[in-house]
Amino acid sequence: MNEPTTPEESPHLTLVSEHTVYACVMGSRAFGLATEASDTDRRGVYLAPTPLFWRFEKPPTHVEGPREEEFSWELERFCELALRANPNILECLHSPLVERLTPVGEELLSLRDAFLSRRAHTTFSRYAASQRAKLLADVRIHGAPRWKHAMHLLRLLLSCRDLLRTGRLTIDATPHRERLLAVRRGELTWAEADAWMSRLTDQSEAALATSPLPDAPDRLRVEEFLTRTRRTSAVTR
Q1: Residue 42: enclosing H or E segment and its boundaries?
Q2: Are residues 20 and 77 in the same domain?
C-alpha cells in the first residue's frame, strides 16, 4: 500500500478536502460482500471553482488520495463518464454508504436516472468480457482464476441484468451474498462459475429487447445542471 498523501505533497488535494460535493464508500462494503479483510474504497466528486478554468493550467480531472484507496473526479469529468455509462461511475452514484453530500451533490444524485440508458448494456458487457478474458488467461496459465475477481465479475453481471430488466441500478448483492462469497473462497469449480457468467450474459441480452431504459441518456438535463453549477461557482467566489 502507498502511504497517504499530504496536502504539502499534492496541492490538488485541497480540491478534495475543500470542494467535494459527494463522497461515498464503494467496493465490497457497498456491495454487501465485505469480510473482515475488506478494504474501505472511497470515491468522490469535487467541484473545481470556476475561476480555476480561466487559467492556462486547468484543474485536474481526477485526484488520488489523500487516504489510501481514495479516488475523486472533477464534476464535469464525472458527468462525462456517467453519460458514457461507465460501470464504475454509474455504480458510484448508487452507493448506499454516503459520507459527504452538499446541495450540489444532492442535485447530482437526483440526476441518477438521467444517466441511465440502454448504452449500459454495451459498456457493462464490454467491461465484463475484458475481465472474463483475464480470468480465462489465469485458468490457462495457473489452473485457476483469481476468485475474488470472479466474484466481482459475477456481481457486475447480476447488476447489469437487473438494470436492463427493471430500469433501476441496484448494487446491493446481499441476496446473492452466500453464493458469491463461495465463489471468492473457490468453493465452486471454474466450470460452474463460468457457466453462471454465461447465463447472466444471455439473460442480459434477452432483457435488452424489452428494457424500460431509454435508448440514450438525458444529456441536456445533465448539461443544464453542470452549466448552472459552474455559473453559480463563478459568481460566489
Answers
A1: strand 41-46
A2: yes
Grid-cell match 489510501, residue found: 68
From first to last of its 237 residues, the chain has per-residue pLDDT tens of: 444 544 444 678 899 999 999 999 999 999 999 988 888 999 999 999 999 999 999 999 999 989 888 999 999 999 999 999 999 999 999 999 999 999 999 999 999 999 999 999 999 999 999 999 999 999 999 999 999 999 999 999 999 999 999 999 999 999 999 999 999 999 999 999 999 999 999 999 999 999 999 999 999 999 999 999 999 998 775
Write out the E strands in 91-225: 98-101
In a domain, 7, yes or no: no
**Grid cell at residue 31:** 456491495
Backbone φ and ψ for 214, nearest 5 degrees, come out as -70, 165
Judge if 79 and 138 occupy the same domain: no
CA dist 215 → 36, 48, 94, 122, 162 (Å):
41, 31, 20, 12, 17
Question: Which helix H or strand E contains 229, and what residues bound it?
Answer: helix 219-235
Question: Which residue range is the domain that position 179 belongs to?
Answer: 119-208
Is residue 35 a part of any domain in this protein? yes
| Amino acid identity for residue 52 in this structure | L
Strand 70-74 to 62-64 pairing: antiparallel
pTM of the model: 0.90
Question: Cα separations (Å) of 130 from 123, 135, 199?
Answer: 11, 9, 17
Distance (Å, whole) CA 162 – CA 200: 10
Residue 51, exposed/middle/buried by CB under 10 A (0-12, 13-18, 19+)?
exposed
| Rounded Cα gap, residues 92 and 99, in angstroms | 12
